Amino acid sequence: MEENAVDIKYEDAGLDERILRAVAEIGYEVMTPIQKEAIPVMLNGKDLIGQAQTGTGKTAAFGIPIVERVDPFEERPQALILCPTRELAIQAAEEIRKYAKYYSGIRVLPIYGGQDISKQIRSLKGNSQIVVGTPGRIMDHIRRHTLKLDALKIMVLDEADEMLDMGFREDIETILKDIPSEHQTALFSATMPKPIVEITKNYQKSDAVFVKIPSKELTIPLVKQYFYEIPKGMKTDAVSRLLDYYNPKRSLIFTNTKRMADELSEELIGRGYFADTLHGDLSQQQRDHVMTGFKNGGTEILIATDVAARGLDVDDVEAVINYDVPEDIEYYVHRIGRTGRAGRKGRAFTLVVGRELYKIRDIERYCHTRIESRRIPAARDVKASKAQSILDGIMDIAEKEDLTDMVALIENRLSDTELTTLDIAAAFLKKAMGSDQDNISDADFITYRSEDRRTRKRAFAERERVRRGNGEDKPVKEHDRAAARGIRSKDLNLDGSVRTKKKKPGFSFVRKKRTKN
User: 471: exposed, middle or buried (C-beta count within 10 Å: 0-12, 13-18, 19+)?
Assistant: First the structure.
């Protein structure tokens, strides 16, 4: 089925008024491509195969039709959704609850490993029409006969390829075989490997509708993508500049290793940021604690590795920063898909060092997108952005709060000094902005590639211009001057003079003249 290029608003899709009310509260207006293709199919009860990437709004694509179709007066499970991880199961259940907010009697129950099974058994005895869970724990309840599927109407496999990669194929097929009633089966997957195709042939009807979101949609148009070419060793300073300038309420930073995630977290915490780490060395309890802090706003910055972030689904992530360029291009797609979700806008920043630039070109070709090159924000721009953010908050307080007591305190203090109210306000702003920890010159972020002599000369001139503009009178390093002339650092002495090359000792062969005897 080809994607319809015309945008469809939720209010024009013929959905129940209760759904429209819930969707409006969440802030959704226009359907994403997978939603406008899949929702009508799901509402008609036909089997569906949906190929779409993470972050394209798949949960709403099956969650909204499920809420509309279940019977609140039937207490047995009518919809079963399988997810690869407990985090995805919890997230899907929370999102479906939002769609069902104005439906009386509909209950959504997440069940997964690591949770007290006796508590789950008690919950399953109640009125739970929609069950969301991981394959292993669902299988456990089926064997115990604590989960019965005789009233099931809708079966959904979410992130099917992920579940197969994690070794759940046997469990999935066992569950599909054990469904006794006539039902609708919907399968969603980012890729369509042979095992997925086999499942669709064996467990879906022959008239199943196939919906595929073209690859050009993989990186999500609402995500603005930028890369910053910086010198080696300046990554953490660059991250600080980006965080201070754009001031995202919630951001994700991806590293390629657990060690780097821990080191970056410690560095950012030391600079006053509310950051935490998510990687494979954490226990499930620690992971839950980290995720709770990130979701409720206690942690503003989550630093994660690709493996640990698998299945991570959090709303309102305003920015994704690739501290390291991902080794696998597909990881780039997964990473930036954590922002700009389901109609929201987001930003993705990638830090590039040296020859990593070619990876950006590979990503652009693979994703059919353009990643814009930018410079790290200047120190004065960061300071102005910080001040503006603080002033906006102060103005909001001034308009909404009763400040009579505060005004009296300031007036009493001013009577003993020659300072004005403007002086006091400026002092408060300076204190709120904190001590200036960014002592890095703007020129230190300007880099040049050794393979291009013209680029080196332009970058060198730019660094000189920035230094002069900042009022810096310190001399440019001899190594920088040499690099601008095309001389490699390894060919310089410590004082910046050019190293003279010594000739290596060799052998000379003299051909003897042959004489006749």
Answer: exposed
Instruction: Select from 334, 329, 331, 327 the least CA-distant residue to 317.
Output: 334
Measured between alpha carbons, how far is 509 from 439 in angstroms, rounded to an integer?
61
Least Cα distance to 45 among 180, 207, 269, 175 occurs for: 207
CB 261 within 8 A of CB 304: yes
pTM (2 d.p.): 0.52
Beta carbons of 212 and 41 less than 8 angstroms apart: no
Cβ atoms of 353 and 232 within 8 Å: the answer is: yes
Residue 430, pLDDT > 90, answer no
What are 185's strand-pairing partners?
155
Indicate where the chain has its CATH 3.40.50.300 domain(s).
Answer: 10-214, 223-379
CATH number of 10-214: 3.40.50.300
- Give residues with Cβ within 8 angstroms of 238, minimum separation 6: 228, 230, 351, 376, 445
Q: Compute the average pLDDT of residues 14-19.
A: 92
| Phi, psi torsion values for 193, nearest 5 degrees | -70, 170
Q: Which of 103-112, 204-213, 336-345 has the lowest mean pLDDT?
A: 336-345
Could you tell me what percent of the chain has a pLDDT over 90?
Answer: 35
Q: Give me the phi and psi of 253, to 5 degrees please.
A: -120, 130
Question: Which carries the bigger pLDDT value, residue 442 or residue 129?
Answer: 129
Report which DSSP code applies to 174. H
CA triplet 160, 161, 162: central angle to 5 degrees?
Answer: 90
Place of tokens 């693979």: 366
DSSP string, 300-336: SEEEE-TTTTTT---TT--EEEESS--SSHHHHHHHH
Residue-wise DSSP of 41-107: HHHTT--EEEE--TTSSHHHHHHHHHHHHS-TT--S--EEEE-SSHHHHHHHHHHHHHHTTTSTT--
Q: What pLDDT, on a 0 to 100 scale, did the predictor assign at position 486?
A: 56
Q: Does 237 or 220 have the greater pLDDT score?
A: 237
Domain 223-379 has CATH 1.10.443.10: no
**How much is the pLDDT for 188?**
93
Place of tokens 């939720």: 10
Which amino acid belongs to residue 44?
Answer: N
Residue with the two structure tokens 């979410």: 158
